[in-house]
TrEMBL record:
Obligatory cofactor(s): pyridoxal 5'-phosphate
Gene Ontology MF, one: pyridoxal phosphate binding
UniProt-listed Gene3D superfamilies: Type I PLP-dependent aspartate aminotransferase-like (Major domain)
Catalytic activity as recorded in UniProt: L-aspartate + 2-oxoglutarate = oxaloacetate + L-glutamate
Organism per entry: Gymnodinialimonas phycosphaerae
EC number from the UniProt entry: 2.6.1.-
One Pfam family, short name: Aminotran_1_2
Family statement: Belongs to the class-I pyridoxal-phosphate-dependent aminotransferase family.
Protein name per its UniProtKB record: Aminotransferase
Length: 403
């Protein structure tokens, strides 16, 4: 019998892919159990009807054949305009490759930056697919840990120490899972490391429309960074178009040309009618993006306010890492004596509330859980009540056991 490739067999590093609890929660829902899901970054509202109307009109108008592999000129222009408006850089269509989602963009960027066996750095905690994406191009992922006491901002010294011999560094701000928005000092430290070690910086900025505190500074806009930065973006989060699979990689024209060659031999582009819907979505401006983001800020504040009330009333020792961006809140649940995995499993079993264990996102997030802000407000409030009641029981039991 023929064998499977080592590359695919080793995609998850020989361990769980980080999604085990999510799969169990979905299995319970499929069996009819009323599970409240706070797991993945899926909006509780669907893609806006007018965007779908634009998609339908384009498809019925005949844009259903092969589209240009790099992306339609109109969408590349629209993405270039958006990126230029967020920075002091001037992007043109030659700087943009349209991809089937941000995930495909990450794969293309690492394919450009790394040869098989090369070391590719990533910040821990990280989005669960990052290590597998790096292994998928034959490179070797090397996490660099951040720390809750730093607000999960990466330290320049740690990056410098880890980066000797590396080819790339993957960063994500606003960050999934932590909600950290990297400060100017953090970004400037990353830039110094990238310059000193001659790294490609792959900057995942899919949450750039979800900023709660501070400002988003595109990494490519830092001095001397444009020529070594590949910026990954998407309409998934900004316009609730997760299922449309519409993203991009932006960077130097020569780099984009090489990734277009990859797309020719892999994805062969994105359907034209979806790209036309993307053009329409971007034409709605930042007001539309702000409207999509607004519920997540509201629910983020709900978590922080309810957590403060719980702590004041019964000494609940769960702590939030206040997110400055993105659609998640990280909760430090180490006071319960449980790991993130054990907390999540028991919470699902006892309360039918599903969260993502911090361990799904790397070693640095152990003892935490990630709460997605993705249920309607009233249902979300019910899920929080169950979560906090469960946590209080764990701590009461721990206190009783040590009394």
């Amino acid at each position: 019998m023929p064998t499977y490739s080592n590359r695919l067999m080793g995609l998850t590093g020989g361990g769980d892919d980080g999604w085990g609890l999510f799969y169990r929660a979905r299995a319970l829902k499929d069996a009819g159990e009323p599970v409240l899901e706070l797991t993945i970054g899926e909006h509780d509202t669907r893609t806006a009807p007018d965007i779908l109307d634009a998609m339908d009109a384009s498809a019925r108008g005949g844009h259903t054949g092969y589209a240009a592999v790099p992306g339609t000129r109109s969408l590349r222009d629209a993405v270039a305009k958006r990126l230029s408006s967020f920075s002091e850089l001037t992007y043109g269509p030659e700087n943009i490759l349209i991809t089937p989602g941000g995930q495909s963009g990450l794969f293309a960027a690492h394919s450009l930056a790394c040869d098989p066996g090369d070391t590719a750095l990533l910040i821990d905690p990280y989005y669960a697919t990052y290590p597998g994406t790096i292994r998928g191009v034959g490179a070797v992922p090397k996490p660099v840990a951040t720390h809750p006491e730093d607000g999960f901002q990466p330290r320049e010294a740690d990056l410098m120490a880890a980066s000797l011999g590396a080819k790339s560094l993957l960063i994500n701000t606003p960050n999934n899972p932590t909600g950290a928005v990297y400060s100017d000092a953090t970004l400037e430290g990353i830039a110094r490391v990238a310059g000193a070690r001659d790294l490609w910086v792959i900057s995942d900025e899919v949450y750039d429309s979800q900023i709660w505190e501070g400002t988003h500074r595109p990494f490519a806009s830092l001095p001397d960074m444009f020529e070594r930065t590949l910026t990954v973006g998407s309409l998934s989060k900004s316009h609730a178009m997760t299922g449309s699979r519409l993203g991009w990689v932006a960077g130097p024209a020569g780099a984009v040309a090489q990734m277009i060659n990859l797309a020719t031999h892999t994805t062969y582009g994105v359907p034209g009618f979806i790209q036309d819907a993307g053009c329409y979505a971007l034409s709605l401006g930042v007001e539309a993006e702000a409207a999509v983001a607004a519920p997540f800020l509201r629910r983020r504040n709900m978590v922080l306010e309810r957590l403060a009330q719980q702590q004041a009333s019964n000494s609940l020792q769960i702590r939030a890492i206040p997110p400055s961006g993105a659609m998640y809140v990280m909760l430090d649940i180490r006071a319960t004596g449980l790991s993130g995995n054990d907390f999540g499993e028991a919470l699902l079993e006892e309360e039918r509330v599903a969260v993502m264990p911090g361990e799904s996102f790397g070693v640095a997030a152990a003892g935490h859980i990630r709460v997605a802000l993705t249920l309607p407000d009233e249902v979300f409030a019910t899920a929080l009540d169950r979560l906090f009641a469960f946590a209080a029981r764990q701590m009461d039991g721990r206190c009783a056991a040590t009394a």
